[in-house]
Amino acid sequence: MSWDWCFHEAHLTECPAPLLLLSLLLLSLGLPVLGAPPRLICGSRVLERYILEAREAENATVGCAEGCSFSENITVPDTKVNFHAWKRMEVQQQAVEVWQGLALLSEAILQGQALLANSSQPSEALQLHVDKAVSGLRSLTSLLRALGAQKEAVPLPDAASSAAPLRTFTIDTLCKLFRIYSNFLRGKLTLYTGEACRRGDR
């Protein structure tokens, strides 16, 4: 089996090239990646790619009027981050914020996709951005699951009752939806994965 080099922060590890290439291909198609390298998301360019797609979608819908308003409100996670409070937060609570936020954001994008498809004159360009967001969120869910976020997000019995509920609000346009998507990736998701990858290096 041939091998390739994988970058993980300040050091290198060996990983099988065929598995790495197959994982990247499946991720680009938005397919679940079973057996993917657990720290694939720690590669700096992996997360950057999804952030770039989210920002492109947000920029494409800024000032958009026709076909960019939803017929009903969509619930999304609050993406505001208090960095001082985040650093003091337990790892488990960070995982809950990210995992639940990602799940709600995925539901919101799917709802937006359905509303856009049912509109009178759906724009092909807008549909493409929404489809890429759906694909990207599926890939990110697989990557975070491989990193262990889902397990970390399971509250302990004594902590379940004291856990703060996920903060949410509603939006009514495609531009606002993409802005939330972009902010979530650049904020909480980047903070969580960065710390999780550093913990794995210790």
Give a summary of the structure in a few sentences.
By secondary structure, this protein is an alpha+beta fold. It has helices at 17-28, 44-61, 83-88, 91-117, 124-147, 149-152, 157-160, 174-201; strands at residues 3-8, 11-16, 69-77, 168-173. A two-stranded antiparallel sheet has the order 1-2. Strands 3-4 form a two-stranded antiparallel sheet.
Describe the structure.
The protein is α+β, with helices and mostly antiparallel strands. The chain contains eight helices and four strands. It has helices at residues 17-28, 44-61, 83-88, 91-117, 124-147, 149-152, 157-160, 174-201; strands at 3-8, 11-16, 69-77, 168-173. The strands form two sheets. A two-stranded antiparallel ribbon has the order 1-2. It has a two-stranded antiparallel ribbon with strand order 3-4. It is globular, with a radius of gyration of 18 Å. The two termini are 28 Å apart. Residues 1-35 have low confidence and may be disordered.
Number of contiguous helices: 8
N-to-C order of helices and strands: EEHHEHHHHHEH
What gyration radius follows from the Cα positions, in whole Å? 18 Å
Mean pLDDT: 78
Main pleated-sheet profile: 2 strands, antiparallel
Query: Count the strands?
Result: 4
Distance, first to last CA: 28 Å
List the helices and strands and how they pair.
Blueprint lengths: L2 E6 L2 E6 H12 L15 H18 L7 E9 L5 H6 L2 H27 L6 H24 L1 H4 L4 H4 L7 E6 H28 L1
List keywords for this structure.
single chain; 202 residues; two-stranded antiparallel ribbon; 8 helices; 61% helix; globular
